Amino acid sequence: MGTRRASVPSSPNSTPPTTTPETSSWTVDQLSSLDKSDEYYLRTFTFRVEGTLFKVPQCRFVNESPIFRGMYSLPQQADAEGLSDDKPIDLTGVEKLDFTRFLRVLYPLGVQLSHSHGPTGPVDDWNSVLKLSTMWRFKDIRNLSVAQLVPLIGSLEPVMQVSLG
């Protein structure tokens, strides 16, 4: 069975992508012999949090967290934990909402028009980011969450400030 590939238009006025006979006849061997970009050939991790699977690029987890770097710095077997939906990294004790908020900062979806990625509002959002970035030692993400929380905390009731620590 041949792999089908779409040709991609090179300009906005080009015709839509189409599959051509030249691009659909590549064999598995030919595809596996292609060079892979060092920067944009992204490997993924699959996490399970409260019964939900999340598949995200490995790069920031491995590059920014000594916890994950230590776990995945060596080459992994194809069936290693986190490399497939069948064998996800189980984040027991992590809440789905906290993990989603953390991922919004780590991997924002859409174009960001400012330097502060992630939630721009509720203290709870940034508190989730602070909790997980501290747990997994994401230094820059932790610093960002603290910087975002400082002005937000000042506007809270003193009881709420104490509860956030």
Automatic annotation (TrEMBL):
Name the segments for region: Disordered.
Answer: 1-27
The superkingdom listed in its UniProt entry is Eukaryota
**Protein name per Swiss-Prot or TrEMBL:** BTB domain-containing protein
User: Native species of this protein?
Assistant: Pterulicium gracile
